[in-house]
Amino acid sequence: MLYIKFYTKKNCPLCDEALVLLDLLRYQYSFELEERDIYTNDVWLEKYQLEVPVVQVNDKTTLNCEEISYEALEQALSKTDN
């Protein structure tokens, strides 16, 4: 099963859009989604504050706000699907 870490923050329209795309992909791929609010962890905040939303698939593929699209997410999920 795929495991996705979704780094996000409140009041973030890009994060909301990325979450909708992930929800759409649930019809094709089985995955567990862990949402991580970057404001709850100083390490996440420092690392991702200018890049949210960030999607990390199985700790292998990471997409940031500039890279996230339906096609990019689907490609990341299909590459790491086991």
Automatic annotation (TrEMBL):
Which Gene3D superfamilies does the UniProt entry name for this protein? Glutaredoxin
Q: Which InterPro entries match?
A: Glutaredoxin-like, Glutaredoxin-like_YDR286C, Thioredoxin-like_sf
Q: Could you tell me the superkingdom of the organism this chain comes from?
A: Bacteria
* PANTHER family cross-referenced by the UniProt entry: GLUTAREDOXIN-LIKE PROTEIN C5ORF63 HOMOLOG
Q: What is the protein's name according to its record? A: Glutaredoxin-like domain
Record organism? Lentibacillus persicus
